Amino acid sequence: MRRIFFGLCIALVGCAKASTIPLTKDTLQITSSAAPVCGMTGAQNVALHQAAVETIRHGYDNFLIVGSQYQNNVGVVGYTPVVANTTGSVTAMGYGNSATAFGNSTTTYSGGQPIIAGTHNQSFVVKMFKDGDPAGNDAISAKSTLGPKWQEAVAQDSHTCL
Fold it and tell me: How far apart are the C-alpha atoms of 142 and 54, rounded to whole Å?
C-alpha cells in the first residue's frame, strides 16, 4: 500500500519539497517537508539531497551539518463516511385466515478509515567547504552524497523521499 500511495503522491502533487535560505556566503539553512507516507527518514533524505545540491551550486565541494531540527505534524484529521448496506429476504405462507412469515437480513458496513494528513519537516544548517580547506577535513562530499549522476541531480529541481 505504501508503494501505491507513494506513486500516487508523486503523480498528483509531489511528496516532498525543499527550500534554501543563505545565512552567510558559506552557510545555508535547508528546510524540507515530506508527506506522511515518506516518514521522518524521507524528510531527512530530501534535506540531505538538497544540502549536497546547494553545496555544488554555491561553488563548494563538501559540507557539514552543524544544526538540525525535526518536526512531525502528521495525524488523523478525520474519517471516511461509514456506509451501511442492508439486504434481506422474506418468505410468507398463508392458509385461510392465518399467515406465517420468515425473514432475515444482513447489514454490511464500509468506510470509517482514518484520513491522515500533515507533514514531516526537517531543517539543517549546512556549512560548506572547498576541497583542501583544512576546516572541512570531516566534511561530507556533496558529489558522493548525490552519487554517480550528481550532475543530473544538480540540474534538476525535483524531490522524492526515497
Answer: 9
Protein fold of 12-74+118-162: Gyrase A; domain 2 (3.30.1360)
- pLDDT tens digits for 20-54? 999 999 999 999 999 999 999 999 999 999 999 99
Residues 6+ apart with CB under 8 A from 104: 88, 89
pTM listed for this prediction: 0.74
Q: Which of 98, 124, 143, 144 is nearest to 29 (CA)?
A: 124
Contact 14, 159 (CB under 8 A): yes
Closest CA to 126 of 60, 37, 43: 60
Please state, in angstroms and rounded to a whole number, the distance separating the CA atoms of residues 129 and 27.
Answer: 9
**Could you tell me the CA-to-CA distances from 104 to 13, 89, 149 in Å, in that order?**
48, 6, 66
Domain spans of the chain, in order of start: 12-74+118-162, 77-115
